[in-house]
From TrEMBL:
Residues 15-69 form the HTH lacI-type domain. The lineage of its organism: Bacteria, Pseudomonadati, Pseudomonadota, Betaproteobacteria, Burkholderiales. This is Substrate-binding domain-containing protein. Keywords: DNA-binding, Transcription, Transcription regulation. Pfam families: LacI, Peripla_BP_3. SUPFAM superfamilies: lambda repressor-like DNA-binding domains (SSF47413), Periplasmic binding protein-like I (SSF53822). One of its GO terms (molecular function) is transcription cis-regulatory region binding. It comes from Massilia cellulosiltytica.
Amino acid sequence: MGSETKQGDRPAGGATVWDVAQKAGVSAMTVSRVINGNASVSDKTREKVNRAIQELNYQVNVAARAARIGTLRVGLLYSNPSAAFLSAFLVGALGECSQTGAHLILENCDNLRSQRKAIDRLIADGADGILVPPPLCDSKAALKQLAEMGIPSVAVATAKPSPQMSAVRIDDYEGALTMTKHLLALGHTDIGFIKGDPEHTPAQLRYQAFIDAMREAGHHVPAERVAQGMFTYRSGLLAARELLAQPTRPTAIFASNDDMAAAVIAVAHGLHLQVPDDIAVCGFDDTPVATTVWPELTTVHQPITEMARSAVALLVEHIRARRAGQSYMPQHRLMPFTLVERESTEAHD
């Protein structure tokens, strides 16, 4: 149904859509239109672009261009350290693409520095629109590039959506607030917290909600009770060791996602601590790892699969409106979250 682009298919010279646009003296969007056979481009402009393509030895993916005729292609730009998040996201995106008859194109972006070329590759391979899940959904450079190129795009799981782009998200602040209040209701007042990637807006809101809930309940959170993570399992191991090596341990640890919470459980087991008797642990997202660890994780369910489906539906809607020559106003969809209580937390005496 879909295909994955390979970085090895790129031209040896490394010329990009932006290079062609600069040489031809036109916008990147105009180059994209020429590449994809859009009839709205004048013959004079088309000639300039084709000349620049030849001079720069820019390799146009002819097969992708031909496949686009009558076909809708959805690009997915991903660079998420959590395999569980990406897996759940792909299930939803592929499912919705199947329903709409769209093709899904995948492009990996190793880091923020490579995002410009990754976007260029998606467009060169015929993407009509692009899905931007975390962490790139919070990249100002990526969002600016997409806006400048005029490519229909949808940001997924950003806590601060741009008014110029459609977005699908949950209320991360309320989700973390609900989880913190749950731990407080169980009798935990000394709670450790593992923060997520500071560049990712949901991580910022989840931490702020934790601090606000603790303060509202009259509890101070010392600096040593907060550890920095990056949403990866390995970073969770380091953060958990930091929190659990203290002379007096917290009675509970709230990690900003399930991968890091699973790491906390692993470290606790290594220290011969019982979960939840000696230390309660909870996460966020409700990815598959939440039910593959022992004990199973209490977490906040973020409907990642449903969010991906909704994002594809919005993107297809935008692309079809554009093809019909109709205007399209960005839409922001707020999906519901759910607190899922499992065996990793219980009442604290």
